[in-house]
Automatic annotation (TrEMBL):
This is Response regulator. Keywords: Phosphoprotein. Transmembrane segments: none annotated. It comes from the Bacteria. The keyword Phosphoprotein applies. It comes from Hymenobacter bucti. The modification 4-aspartylphosphate is found at D57. Residues 2-125 form the Response regulatory domain.
Amino acid sequence: MKILVVDDEPDVRTLFEQRFRREIRSGALAFSFAYSGEEALGYLHDHHSEVVLILSDINMPGMSGLELLRRVRTEPAPPPPPRVMMITAYGDETSRNQALALGADDFLTKPVDFAALKEKLLALPSA
């Protein structure tokens, strides 16, 4: 399953690659990384049919994760539409409700529980 992780923190790549080393090696999961909402949209435009899931931070400079989610859900794109999980350090109900209203499939808080995330990802159908 191809996952696009969108987060402005540069160390997120290393963290995901360490935590999912076995799943990456086996081919069960493949990760790409974007460090802004704008970069994520460009990646999705170029690789629209590859991405099955987007894991996006909400609070980023420039385009927020919520704006990225809105655009992913409303702008015409070839199917299949990716699943979207939002991640934030601020687990407030307003952000959660806004993300779910915009079409998020799940809402996670930081620090991310990688064991629980791994279970969720591996339980998803890959296409």
